[in-house]
């Protein structure tokens, strides 16, 4: 009998949880400051987050689904979901609604990561750990931007960290899903879930976060530069 640590289910669970729990890393680096969300620093982190969302959507996720004819409908559905969610929220809670749309999209994103990790461990243990390491490198910068978006929505550091950690279980469910339901076509995920996630990421970055950042005329050039750095970072990581 194989050792418990070598089992596909165990390794997939550990790998997906490691990826999901990167969402709590930012709390270790962000100072305890009630005025943090009003500082120029949070604007720079938000700009980087918007860039990573755009880079993730267009340079990482979109190429994976372009072979399917249905992907534009999924992208539009994800974008409209964010738009409708915000419109049914109080006007003063625009930032908070954007934060929760991004959180939901992250759950879907972690679910797809879990699928990739679980599928890789099914092929081989070494292949699974290699995939886990690649996704970890890709996710860490992304999570700092996501954390900033939650803070912008009015959440406390501890609340944001808690919600980020909960998304880890979406990754775990994705890993276990692909292990125990191997006969279900993975095309379902690529046709539906990934395009929806792309649309939600585009909404949060372009419609919810960027307009507010662009109002800062004093730091406009720095914000554009940091957004570009975020996009390039995700583009480089996606090529690994």
From TrEMBL:
Domain of life, per lineage:
Eukaryota
Q: Membrane-spanning residues where? A: 7-29, 41-59, 71-88, 161-181, 188-207, 219-237
* Descriptive protein name: Zinc transporter ZIP13
Q: Which GO terms describe its biological process?
A: intracellular zinc ion homeostasis
The record, for Pfam families, names:
Zip
Q: Does the keyword Transmembrane helix apply?
A: yes
Subcellular localization, per the record?
A: Membrane
Query: One GO CC term of this entry?
Result: membrane
Molecular function GO labels: zinc ion transmembrane transporter activity
Its keywords, alphabetically, are: Ion transport, Membrane, Transmembrane, Transmembrane helix, Transport, Zinc, Zinc transport
Q: What is its main location?
A: membrane
Q: How does it sit in the membrane?
A: Multi-pass membrane protein
Catalytic reactions on record: Zn(2+)(in) = Zn(2+)(out)
């Amino acid at each position: 009998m194989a050792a418990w640590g070598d089992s596909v289910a165990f390794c997939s669970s550990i790998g997906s949880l490691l990826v999901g729990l990167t969402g709590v890393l930012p709390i270790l680096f962000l100072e305890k400051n009630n005025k943090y969300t009003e500082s120029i620093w949070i604007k720079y982190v938000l700009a980087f987050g918007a860039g990573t969302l755009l880079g993730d959507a267009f340079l990482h996720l979109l190429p994976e689904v372009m072979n399917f004819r249905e992907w534009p409908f999924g992208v539009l559905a994800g974008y409209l979901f964010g738009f409708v969610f915000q419109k049914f929220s109080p006007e003063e809670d625009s930032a908070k609604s954007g934060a929760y749309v991004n959180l939901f999209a992250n759950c879907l994103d972690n679910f797809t990561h879990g699928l990739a990790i679980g599928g890789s461990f099914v092929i081989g243990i070494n292949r699974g750990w290699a995939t886990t390491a690649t996704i970890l490198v890709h996710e860490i910068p992304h999570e700092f931007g996501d954390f900033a978006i939650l803070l912008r929505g009015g959440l406390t550091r501890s609340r944001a960290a808690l919600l980020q950690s909960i998304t880890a279980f979406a990754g775990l469910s994705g890993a276990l899903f692909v292990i125990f339901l191997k006969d279900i076509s993975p095309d379902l995920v690529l046709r539906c879930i990934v395009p929806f996630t792309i649309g939600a990421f585009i909404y949060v970055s372009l419609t919810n976060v960027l307009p507010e950042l662009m109002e800062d005329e004093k730091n406009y050039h720095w914000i554009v530069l940091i957004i570009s750095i975020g996009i390039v970072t995700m583009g480089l990581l996606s090529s690994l």
